[in-house]
Design goal:
The protein is α+β, with helices and mostly antiparallel strands. Helix content is 20%, strand content 53%. The chain is built from 1 helix and 8 strands; from the N terminus they run αββββββββ. The chain has one helix spanning 2-30; strands at residues 40-48, 54-63, 68-77, 84-98, 101-109, 115-123, 126-133, 137-145. Strands 1-2-3-4-5-6-7-8 form an 8-stranded antiparallel beta barrel. Strand 3 (68-77) and strand 4 form a beta hairpin. It is globular.
Length: 148
């Protein structure tokens, strides 16, 4: 039990610094004009079809080339009163564009969390994606977010 508390105590500052880094980028991107219909800030929910768990989800999509993007996700997991933040970034995502529809698909190895594949579509103010991993499968349901 003491080792668990010590480990959590050592990891907490890392989680908080990643959180504050995400928050700073989120605030900056909210006030930056989107480069296209996919670039920018997205906010919504994730839901596991395997366990039924769900939580808040935000994504910062950054266009880095004609069809290259990075997608930085920040999710909350666990009880609403004390959620655990989880963050990861998909780099060098190839996006196919058909008119105003952006299609996203790919796979990555997330180390400890196993292989992860995703398949999504962004159209207008809506970005929906499914995911499958070795341990879970579910959906992301996001809407475009702008500064108030």
């Amino acid at each position: 039990m003491n080792k668990l508390l010590l480990t959590l105590g050592l990891l907490a500052p890392l989680a908080l610094s990643a959180c504050s880094n995400f928050e700073a980028e989120w605030d900056r991107r909210l006030h930056t004009k989107a480069l296209d219909g996919f670039d920018g800030c997205w906010k919504g929910q994730w839901r596991s079809e395997t366990s039924g768990h769900d939580g808040d989800l935000r994504a910062i999509v950054t266009r880095s080339g004609d069809s290259d993007y990075s997608i930085r996700y920040h999710a909350l997991y666990g009880p609403k009163a004390l959620p655990i933040p989880f963050e990861y970034t998909l780099d060098s995502v190839k996006v196919e564009r058909e008119g105003d529809v952006f299609k996203v698909a790919g796979a990555i190895d997330m180390g400890l969390f196993g292989k992860y594949s995703y398949d999504g579509k962004c159209s207008g103010e809506s970005y929906k994606s499914s995911y499958i991993s070795e341990y879970d499968r579910g959906i992301f349901d996001l809407e475009r977010t702008a500064a108030d």
